[in-house]
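The records we work with from here on pair a chain with its fold. Each token is a code from a learned vocabulary of local backbone shapes. A record is reproduced here so that you can trace the correspondence yourselves:

_____
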Amino acid sequence: MLKNLVLSFLLLTVASVQAIWPIPETLSTGNQTLWIGDVLLVTYNGEKLPWVRNYRPFGGPTFSSKEIVKGGVSRTFGNILDNNFVPWKLYPRLELEKSEPSLRQKVYITRLDLVQTAADKPSAFKPLDDELDESYSLSVGANGTVKIVAVSSIGILRGLETFSQLFYKHSKGPIYTKLAPVEVKDCPQYAHRGVLFDVSRTFFPVDAIYRTIDALSWNKMNRLHIHATDSQSWPLEIPSLPELHLKGSYGNGLTYSPATVTAIQTYAVQRGVEVIFEIDTPGHFGVVALSHPDIITGWGASPWSTYCAEPPCGQLRLNEPKVDPFLDTLMDDLLPRLAPYSAYFHTGGDEVNFNEYNLDPSVGTNDSAVILPLIQRFIDKHHARVRKAGFAPIVWEEIPANYNVTIGKDVVVQSWLGDAAIESLTAQGHKVISSNYNFWYLDCGRGQWLNFAEGAVYAERYPFNDWCSPYKNWRLVYSYDPRGGLSAEAAKLVIGGEVAAWSEAIDDANIDLILWPRSSAAGEVLWSGRHDALGRNRTQHDAAPRLAEFRERMLARGVKSEPVHMIYCTQGLDPTLCQFE
């Protein structure tokens, strides 16, 4: 009997007391119960802040800190009061009711004070990597008063999210926490914490993008990188070039209008997420041949494996006079519409296949001695367009690493080829976003999307693994340290990371399950750091029960997420049986 009581206490300690995701920098909790309902006073900088469920804040293209906070308060109480869960999985089987607090003599939370200590600069809503302070402190008193203090309105959003994760739904309905008093101090370790979302290989409805933005905000992630176009489709409507989507989209209605793009960006800013659009150039551009064949080389080239990484092929011609006017028109239309909402624009640059320039009448060779100067000229011109519109450019690592292109100090390099590549890029002084495919490519390990005829190739490719197998489960995602092995100076240049979900075999039916909870694992690495305050690796033993609980919160809030482990591992009498030493 005593053994069972001790194990039950351990389960509560592991699964509940430190259940915040991502784990805060410092956290202390008590064992007193507080209840919460929809009758409570909220203040913002000393003024009463009326709140209602499902409040839609005003905003865009300029934003109000007060409106950002009002929206955050509404969503927080919606998640606490309406989208919560009964934590039966966190207790020994059939013992939930014994472990729940008594419904008698409730002490309620009566007041939530939100204090922002500095006025938001305009950059708070579209920050560069070093422009936003997201730190916050949270205090929950045993008497039912709560205070969140932050430098920025976005910091208040992060504190509200932590506050929301303290609460559970009683089996009889009311909402409670058993952790009061609570003290939290918290801040992120990386400025850039994101997900790459590919809407070009597969078209996604706007609701899927909204769900992803919501889940990003719950995980305290702050970047959504939308890979908007590729050789497969052009879903972006460009009013000055309507032929691009009319001929290049997958079908009528499978496009994003200017109004939709604005709505996506506004929705994100209101949740502390910055949307970064990518138009990949000069490669991954083939579909434009359907409307502008005279600026594309390699469209329909066969065999495709000679000319591109995947079908269909097609790249911008590098020495064709019509390319610059086309890009001028495209960027003059698109970039001013993105500029109010983001400080970055991604210009791509990966996987340029030099063989395609054998087919380019303006080049006529695959000789790198000819092509590399042309790529340099292309990047110089294209980044000038991006800077003129007020953005800092982002490029894939091939631009400086493979093509030896000189890029500006303002350019951020996104690396996907691994730790050696990051070490080389930081040694050259580049700021880096890590998307190491060995750990953070979430589409990997699910098998080929290509089909193979019976015969030698069939036998060679059997059992049809994809190029980047194995599958990156959450434990592998969690194990990755973006700054691992780097000197202190080099580590400062790694400003963050992104998990990637390339969508050759992903659509709206499975995108949530592809992203979550694996993106959550990366989210904690990027917010909390791979190591604790004592310099020790954060372990799966610590992370698993917290992530399993957070997964329940995501489900309750409407985002599907794969299981972290079987229920026994949080509900079993001996949780150590799910640990392997």
User: Anything to note?
Assistant: The chain has two domains: 2-189+573-578, 192-242+254-281+342-349+371-528. Residues 86 and 320 are 63 Å apart (CA to CA). Confidence is low (pLDDT under 50) at residues 1-17.
